[in-house]
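Hello K.,

You asked for the raw outputs rather than the summary table, so here they are, unedited. I folded two proteins back to back in the same session to keep the settings identical. This is the first:
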Amino acid sequence: MQDFKKLLVWQKSIQLVINTYKATSSFPSEERFGLTNQIRRAVISISNNIAEGCGRFSQKDLVHFLQMSLGSTNEIENCLIISQALDFMAEEVFNNLLNKTQKLEKC
């Protein structure tokens, strides 16, 4: 069992949550239960899965949860592309979040 709070990947995932919540707060209100909700759930699942994996007792379980986190980063990337295509976020915000997401995938 590991202390997930000490992991750089978990720390970066929390920063991505904060940045994503701020970026999605300006999405259209009709997206509150659509894309906004999907993006927020996916970004939170990254850090949740890291934390849960660290609480498991086998390396195999940890790897499984880290793989689920990686899947969530891909989901975020896809949702960001859709959001930008729909003009829900400025180009600079999109590029910043996409960059942070891609860096997180490499941790």
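The second followed immediately with the same parameters:
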Amino acid sequence: MRAMRATARDIFRYALDECSIERGFSRNIHYERDILQVGSDLYDLDTFSRVFVISFGKAAHTSLEALLSRLGAGTGATGIVCAPTLPDSFAFGFRYFQGGHPIPNRESLRAADAILRALETMNGRSLVIYLISGGGSSVVEKPISEEISFEDLAQTHEALVHSGAPIAQINAVRKHLSAVKGGRLALAASPAHQLSIMISDVPENTIASLASGPTMPDLSTVEQCYDIVRQYNLLPQLPESVRELLLTRQLEETPKPNDLPFERARWWSVLSNISAQKATVERAAINGFAIQIDNTCDDWDYRKAADYLLKRVRELRKGVSRACLISGGEVTVKIDGKPGTGGRNQQFALYCAEHIEGENIAVLSAGTDGIDGNSPAAGAIVDGSTVARAIEKGLSPQAALEGFDAYPFFEALGDTIVTGFTGTNVRDIRVLLAW
């Protein structure tokens, strides 16, 4: 079982390497003789009076570094960068902000103000390049109403994050409460030409929810927001200023697909969870596994998702010597009471441990950003021996599960997945091996 755990770690590490920002940019972005090519779009940078870059999210620093290494100094690009961390070195001509994640901080608000002021100066000969990655929803933020204080904003984000709602629904509400989300950055930058280069941590068919879609037309509506708040009984957890907007139905609609700002806007996803899944398949194939991908349980409750995936991998291993089931996306965890240390990946893995006791199954679940909840781990790995090994050490899997305190449990066993901050973010990957 130790060897199988090592194999699962190797598969995940390979996927991380293949999902680096540099490799994603190398496959999709090229620059030669003043022509910037992104996907099939071409931009002659000589025709623009100004090139302004706004990079924000968990991959903000690595994305900017990859872009500037291609453009060089001749373009005179300047801009703003906002991420949960500060870089080791700072690019000339760029302002840096250290925004909060998963809850906005005061730097998040300062970053939003700086971006909006800069976009007001753009004209029809300006090119605004957005480098957007997961985490952008919190690192850059400004309330739609002056009545919503910073404390109210933080309380609202925390209530949404802990609601158990899928990320697309969380972001629908965020968009309508924000001055920068749901296409409102694009509105502020109009009539400039706008190019969004995205490192996606959202489902493939919901790209407009990445960082709450600041540069894209928003398909969600105010009516959906009212329904989401009602469905998850959020009103009691929200501050009075936000409750007032919702109860009196004063939310304003976000920019829609046919609105003017989007006539000069383009969007390209250069890395996504599909990229991670393809790399995982490549590595698992080299190790001789029969492989299937199943993303059915994306955004499911972690217990329901675990039950489903364990059933699938047991079915897959019938008739083969080594089976590998790959599942991309995220699971949800509704937190009751005060949580311990951990995250959705470790919670998922710990639940699996109790349901594969004694079986020849290994389960790895981890985030490609290197962060799982409020822990220093990206995730964890379990197998049929996890529960027995825990009991030998005097650990209680059930207590850790009920207390949302999985990290200390896995750290004591040496079964955490610790990568450090990876500089990329394309959602979570689950690898289930059976033999």
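The mean pLDDT is 95.

Happy to rerun anything if the numbers look odd on your end.

Regards,
P.
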